[in-house]
Amino acid sequence: MCRKEAFKLIWNESVDILLVDDQPENLLALESVLDCSGYNLVKANSGVEALRCLLKRDFAVIVLDVQMPGMDGFETAQWIKSREKTKAIPIIFITASTREEEFAFTAYSVGAIDFMVKPFSPTILKSKIEGFVQMHKIQKKLQLQTELLNQQTEEMQVAKEAAEAAAKAKSEFLAIMSHEIRTPMNGVIAMADLLLETELTQDQRDYAETIHKSGNALLLIINDILDLSKMESGKMELFEEPFDLSDCIGETLDLFSLDCRKKSLDLIYNIDPKIPENLLGDVVRLRQILLNLVGNAVKFTESGRIDVFVRLKETKGNSLEVEFTVRDTGIGIDEIFINRLFQPFSQSDSSTTRKFGGTGLGLAISKSLVELMSGTIGVKRNDGPGTSFIFTVLLYKAH
């Protein structure tokens, strides 16, 4: 049953009302007043019988006579209010006694919600009963909502735990498999290196070089998967060491000099003179970010230039917020694809993968590394051709 149907059933169902009086004619009078209202009227002629009814059914309201032989109305009310299951049921006392003030005080002290003296107005009684019945239905609805909410919370918790377990298992699997694959892959690359140092025919040399290049490409993918699994499992750590920023950038860009010469690309970098030469930080991870961004710029740029700008954005004591910009004159990025660039295994569109290759892990890993280094990363389209990737990291002055 859906929630809407359950609420509708609560609102339309007949509610139980308990009428307690030792005089049968009084019970008939109450029944005649309330019978046309669609209530399920349950009659009891004593306090003990009323308690038996309360053990079996759930009542919206109780109309209770004060003066009864044996257990009177006040004693019955005290017992009702002492039980957790029945203490919230509204009680309306009805009496024919002339000791109205005294009885009213006692009635309210034992937990009654209203007090009426015979002869009472049927219209007033019906209106009070209707009000308590509506309250009862609202409470039932709230109770159902609470139960549904608790059920949904439990289901969400179970789903969350299952998702976390699956993510952990996936990360552990990727880490293990990456390690297991990387070891024989290093052997393949090493054997290809040794093979290239021997006397080979031209065809054999071409085959060996293809094996070597393919092995290195596969090793890069394996390393990316291993890094991603470490980040997702929270096991990626940074190692701070002194380094020279100019050397870091120069050595990184040297790796792309051959590809740039083939495309006649200018690869230029500029470092803000305000930045100290000697810094403290994880130079390996900083170089990895630059390799990803500059590598993408070279891959997607057929002509023009690639610029790497480094500037000091802010200084706080011994810490430096350094901003890096990698700007190219390449194919650019459509606005609709920018938001998903930094998601794992995502590229701007399928044609990019077919034409240029890649797994789409580089930018996701770069984003995680930047955030580990207390920075941010973003991308924007240039006014002219190409794209600019901008990221910041927190570095420190090295003493």
Major sheet: 7 strands, mixed
- Please bin the fraction of helical residues: 40-55%
Q: Superfamily at the CATH H level of the largest domain?
A: Histidine kinase-like ATPase, C-terminal domain
What is the number of domains?
3
Q: What's the helix count?
A: 12
Please provide the ordered H/E string of secondary-structure elements.
HEHEHEHEHEHHEHHEEHEEHHEE
Taking pLDDT < 50 over at least 5 consecutive residues as the criterion, the unreliable ranges are: 6-11, 352-357
The CATH architecture name of the largest domain reads: 2-Layer Sandwich
What descriptors fit this protein?
52% helix; single chain; Heat Shock Protein 90; 399 residues; alpha/beta; Rossmann fold; 3 domains; 12 helices; 5-stranded parallel β-sheet; elongated; 12 strands
What can be said about this structure in brief?
The protein is an alpha/beta fold.
Task: Write the SSE topology.
Elements: H1 3-12, E1 16-20, H2 24-34, E2 40-44, H3 47-56, E3 61-65, H4 73-82, E4 91-95, H5 100-109, E5 114-117, H6 122-196, H7 202-232, E6 241-244, H8 245-254, H9 257-263, E7 266-271, E8 278-281, H10 283-299, E9 305-316, E10 319-328, H11 350-356, H12 362-372, E11 377-381, E12 387-397
Parallel strand pairs: 1-2, 1-3, 3-4, 4-5, 7-9
Antiparallel strand pairs: 6-8, 8-12, 9-10, 10-12, 11-12
Helix pairs in contact: 1-6, 3-4, 6-7, 7-12, 8-10, 10-12
